[in-house]
Amino acid sequence: MTWIHKIRPKLRHILVVAIAAVVVGAGTAAYWALPSLVSEDRLRRALTAHAAIWSGGEVHLPADTAVSSVRGRVITLENAKFGGTFGGAEWQLGVAAIKATVRVLPLLWGKLEIETLTLEAPHLRLVDHDESAMAALRDLRADKPDLPKPEGEVIVTNASFVYEGSAGRRVGFDGMDLRIAAEPGSTAVLLSGTLPAGRGRLHVQGRLDDPVAVLSGSGSNARLALSGAATADDAGTPPPQPQPDMPGAAKETPIISGLRRIAAVVGLTGAGRIAIEGRVSAMPRTLGVADARVSFGGLLGEGDMTIALTGQKPPVDQLDDVVRGAAAAWRDAATSIAAGAWRDAPVTLDWLAPLEVTLAARLRDSRLAGQSVEARRIRLHAQDGRARLEVAAAGDLGRLRGDLMLDAVPSGGPPQVAVNGRLESVDMGATGRTLLLLAPPPLVSPPPMPEGTLDADIDLATRGATLGAMVTALDGAIKAEARDGSVAGADLAMTLEGLADGRKIMTERDGPLIPSAGRTEFDTAEGRIDFGPGVARISMFRIRGGRYDIDMLGEADLGIGAIRGDGQARLLDDLADDADASPIVDLPFGLGGTLAAPVVAAGVPRSGDELTSGAAAEGEVE
Predict the structure, then answer these.
(1) For the purposes of burial, counting CB atoms within 10 Å of the CB of 229, is it exposed (0-12), middle (13-18) or buried (19 or more)?
(2) Domain housing 300
(3) How far is the C-alpha of 531 from the C-alpha of 555, rounded, in Å?
(4) Tens digit of pLDDT for each residue in 248-280?
(5) 100 within domain boundaries
(6) 581 in a domain, yes or no?
(7) pTM across the whole model
(8) Domain co-membership, 32 together with 166
(9) Residues facing 393 on adjacent strands
(10) Do 64 and 208 fall within a single domain?
């Protein structure tokens, strides 16, 4: 029996509590006192070594830098300034404050280990007049076995970066918050933080197997999750300054509202999340993602992508040109559309010229607005201002095959666009309801969608410096055929049967012709629209039902949107064979108004004795 068991129970409990209090007190004293007993020189050496490991040996504390440990295990350094060269380029780093947290337990046996290094408001300036820094990054080796592995964490708050290239322009960003944690026993690091993204913030979480390899051609396996940063993530960080390239007119235009709705349908909302996994490499002029898997909303994509900058300009200046050019193009178009002059909205695409993009991908096990979709082929190649996108997809809504070709700067002329594609077995009802999800919420209940199965061929080309010019320069044709469907709004067969039974129109007793409510069922519906300079011609439009048929011709002035057309609707004798069916009612009609608000006007019907073969032939549409 030990000595503690010989003591009375009550006294034994008091001793246990006392011993625990002593241990806690000693630990607390060590927590606060031990780091303070470490010499300044030793603190400086430890802090320098830790910074050198994380910076690859580039950052060293100046010998005369004063460091102190006055708050327990926290080492502080105020208004630190560093400098040096990287591949011949000069860099300067200023930090408002550096704080290093020391591990206490290793101090008990004489070791000084830094757990967390925090840099408050660091500002990095890189002066690279001869692109030597870009060359050094390009020649960076991924395998550096002599470098020690990072340990602990580095926290960066409100960081900023400025690059000055050979052109003397200042390019950079500010407002970055990032936490980088080393994974014990490996070169991998974990990332978490927020980055500036235009007028907003982007939350980032992820893992890099080898950060140094990212800056080389070999790349590093990576997993990243991106999402719009919530307000709480921005606490303590000044919001980014408004961008002058994004005017107030572009804040909420119909285009932006439409994009927001499309994003919501896909699942990519402000709080949405994009997950990316693959092998990432970031060279000075090339960004690549190989064996990538990307998911957002209900979409899951796989493939490879490479984005490169061509030309002779420094890559940072060139990337800045692309960003500024895209912002200016968006600004000018959004301003025109917001002012109600969409036809005058400029189409400016020359900023795409420096980009060279290669994408080979596919979608699988994906859903779009509740409908399954699988894209077996998505290929994009862009170079020298020319781009081609190929898509082949299938799903609940039908099948799609299409090519989109773009020439942003055709010998200094206006941009050119060409579309060639085919739709097969498209469910018109489901597709229409899906498209309604992308439109603004209607003030009243939306009309029922056409039903049936649609096949269509599209072959269009255009060019122009504005949206209006592109519309009026359309050239090509659209051919479509639908089957086994119906159109909502009126029951044409019942309306024509009323005329066959003697219903008169435009009389004092019967009044104008009002179509019977319901749906018009059809067996087949065919149409062709041919586009010429400023005109869209309905060269063929034919609908066939069980007891009726409709034929129409017409055209639309694409410059002003006016439309004009003439057609006939016939009720057929149900007693005759299909091949010998003859009309018993012939109703001519006219089409007018505009593309946005078409108007259909009925003519004078013919039936009975009035419907002779000669009269019918005169009124038929050829």
Answers:
(1) buried
(2) 39-235+265-321
(3) 10
(4) 434 445 555 555 555 555 544 444 678 889 999
(5) yes
(6) yes
(7) 0.74
(8) no
(9) 375, 400
(10) yes
